[in-house]
Amino acid sequence: MIITLAGKVGSGKSTIGNFLAKELNMERYSMGDMRRKMALERGMTLAELNKLGEKEDWTDREVDEYQKKLAQKEDNFVIDGRLSWFFIPNSIKIFVDVDPKVGAERVFLAKRGSERGYKSIEEAEMANKERIESDIKRHKMLYKINPYELKNYDIVIDTSEMTIEEMNKLALKAVRTFIDDQR
Predict the structure, then answer these.
(1) Planar angle of CA 24, 78, 150, nearest 5 degrees
(2) In the predicted model, what is the mean pLDDT of residues 63-87?
(3) More confident residue, 112 or 136
(4) Which end of the chain, N or C, is more open, meaning fewer C-beta atoms within 10 Å of its C-beta?
(5) Is residue 36 part of a domain?
(6) Is the four-CA dihedral 124, 129, 132, 137 of positive or negative sign?
(7) Residue 8 lies in a domain
């Protein structure tokens, strides 16, 4: 079984991914972590790498090829990435949604905002909006898809008003229900 997670910044993708991997005894991969590492190795921020990706497709293709190869080698893992559902179509595709203000607040309060230099929740919200716009632009250019269209997913979870425990429990229940419905 392969579970692909996509969603908005601050929605809880990583938290849910870690939880599902542990609960289901699976490996977990993060394309966001991979892209952040790529940016760091080049002395850039993720936002700068995304902006460069609007003109140079290698910034996305490297990660995209990694996902394709991973799905050919393994068949039991959790992966979070904006396009994981696209490159691994034989997966359980989950989108984790969140109200933009709530997502920005979570990022900022978790101190991830300070790593990115956000001085306020409003600044984090603006940066998240710009990131979504860049994602849409790059992925439409490369693959003619929008990773934020909910029709691409089997399961959609809005975590805006949930605690970590609630979203993890709901995600696990949704995966188990989806598997049962496929039988």
Answers:
(1) 115
(2) 94
(3) 136
(4) C
(5) yes
(6) negative
(7) yes
